[in-house]
Amino acid sequence: MKKLEKEGGYKISENQSQKIADKLSTALAKLDSEYLKEYSSVISADIQKEIIDKSTVTSNIFGGVYIRESNLDRVADNLSEKRLAASDKYQIDIINGKLNVKKDSEIAIKLSELSLEKANSSNYNMKLMSNQDLAHIRKENPAQFDKVVFGKDTVVINPKEVIESVIDQAVDKLKTKNGIKLSPQKESHLRDKFKKELTPALSKLDPEYLKEQSGRISSDIQKELYKNKSIGYFFGKEFSVAKKNLAKISDSITTKNQQSSNQFEVSKVENLKSEGKQTNTQLEQGLKELAVKKAEEYVFKAKDMTPEKFLEMRKENPARFDKIVLGVGKKQDIIVTSKDVSISALVEKAKSISSRISNNTKSSQIIHLPSGREEGVIDLLHNLIF
User: Fold this and answer.
1) CA dihedral defined by 139, 141, 146, 151, rounded to 10 degrees?
2) Three-class SS of residue 374?
3) How far, in Å, CA of 70 to CA of 75, rounded?
């Protein structure tokens, strides 16, 4: 940018510089810091070309170089789209290189250590948590949540049993209310089919809500099943419902009940808070204890040990994952963000490399940078940061 101002007679406002820096920093922060360090020159060249190609030279009245917000968004999006997959592969290769020599049982132990460390370092702030947030945490295991966080014993409800009961009631009502006659084999087949297709939708509902509303919901399902029966039933064939129609019924279950179920969960939390009268500090401690208990109880299996799962875990906190699971790094390592690393690395390069930008005439509407000239973007980022 300094070269542009000096040789081309153009200026870039401080506000514009900050906009560019903020936008690119957000995109760079999505990439792994080590990947950014290793490929900083290549990435710099990409950024340089994108910014220069999308920069318009306005009249001197408007202060010189100007990059529209929409173009800045495109530069950031292109950077993320082009580099994110490569950054992920870079991390997966490192993870595989370290873990391929270990047994699954050894990895499972390390993952348990990671999970426990994460739970022990977790912090909750009740001032920032809504009842909806608490309801979401409670949903995973209501009885455990109530006991650990509120010290209240709750009857354990088996969701699978409740769901199957609701569907069985619906089939029973088809027989009694709609007069559907089924052979034992057909009835058994339909019950299994309906449970398989409708369980995902019913699983989204709170088990306590589902049990409380089982009569109404089973009647709704019965009516929908009869309404969506196969056309062959009118020609003497046994009662059946096509898979595509069961999908419609699933959507109907969600539409009619999900909001009420969510509100039911929030109401349960409100009642627990009202009855328990814990302070925010006590609730925060209870939530931490719950997180630790879950971590202690969870057993990692083969499905948890895929490259994609490892990558997801590492992205949460690379330094912690590398130290505990991969066995690299130091205990006292400071955990820094990709944004910090990427910007500092580019700044250091900016200090050591001279910027060269080809001469441009004032009449040019677009500034084009010759291929392979990466120093310009480094100088650009250096100027944006300082």
Assistant:
1) -160
2) coil
3) 9
pLDDT of residue 41: 87
343 is written with which tokens? 């910007």
pLDDT score recorded for residue 46:
83
Those residues whose C-beta lies under 8 Å from the C-beta of residue 26, and which sit 6 or more positions away, are 76, 339
Cβ atoms of residues 357 and 376 within 8 Å: yes
Cα separation of 33 and 29, whole Å? 8
Q: What is the CA radius of gyration of the chain?
A: 30
Give CB contacts under 8 A, 24+ apart, made by 127-133: 127/280, 131/266, 131/269, 131/270, 131/273, 132/262, 132/266
> Among residues 287, 266, 289, 317, which one has the least CA distance to residue 125?
287
Mean pLDDT of the chain: 82
DSSP string, 222-251: HHHHHHTB-GGGGGTPPP-B-HHHHHHHHH
pLDDT higher than 70, residue 378: no
**Identity at 302, one-letter amino acid code:** A
Q: What is the pLDDT of residue 330?
A: 52
Q: Percent of the chain scored above 70 by pLDDT?
A: 78
Q: Residues 160-171, buried b or exposed e (16+ Cβ, 10 A)?
A: eebbbebbebbb
Can you give the pTM of this predicted structure?
0.69
pLDDT at 64: 55
How far apart (Å, rounded) are the C-alpha atoms in residues 352 and 55? 25
Torsion from C-alpha of 380, 381, 382, 384, nearest 10 degrees = 90
Phi and psi of 267, rounded to 5°?
-65, -35
Structural domain boundaries in the chain = 2-96+331-385, 125-299
Element (H, E) at 57: strand 56-57
